[in-house]
Amino acid sequence: MDFPNDLKYSRSHEWVRVEGSEAVVGLTDYAQEELGDIVYIELPEEGGEVEKETAFGVVESVKATEDLFSPVSGKVVEVNSPLDDSPEMVNEDPYGDGWLIRLEMTDQDEIKELMNAEQYHAYVEAESD
């Protein structure tokens, strides 16, 4: 499993890459592995607002259907529309082409509340026991 050091992580298994005042959000390698083959992803409309720790979409796999939760609050400035036709990109490249949404953050301090790679790795290990 991969835990890139340049990302922040939520307890609901989403990752965040901060790029200036924007946050790119995706599903962690651990989450996609647990879900199995992803067959459908529902994402919000561009221009909509999302609140920290509230559902912004749905991911459906051969095993389960799960809500996606936003690790930070903000305005959706871009959705990864290629996922509409190729949701398996989340399985194939969760930290690259499989990203989900890009947000204009409304409170950058929320990033401080997320886990770093080492903390997230320990969290996943504890959750797996």
Oligomer: single chain
Query: What is the name of the CATH class?
Result: Mainly Beta
Give me the CATH fold name.
OB fold (Dihydrolipoamide Acetyltransferase, E2P)
Major sheet summary line = 6 strands, antiparallel
The CATH superfamily appears as RNA polymerase II/Efflux pump adaptor protein, barrel-sandwich hybrid domain
Total strands: the figure is: 9
Provide a compact summary of the structure.
This protein has helices at residues 29-35, 89-92, 117-128, and strands at residues 8-9, 14-19, 22-27, 38-42, 49-50, 55-61, 65-69, 74-79, 101-105.
Kindly describe this structure.
This protein has three helices and nine strands, in the order βββαβββββαβα. By secondary structure, the chain is an alpha+beta fold. The chain has a six-stranded antiparallel β-sheet with strand order 1-2-3-9-8-5. Strands 4-6-7 form a three-stranded antiparallel β-sheet, with no helix packed on it. β2 (14-19) and β3 form a beta hairpin. The radius of gyration is 13 Å and the shape is globular. The two termini are 16 Å apart. The model has no long low-confidence stretch (mean pLDDT 96).
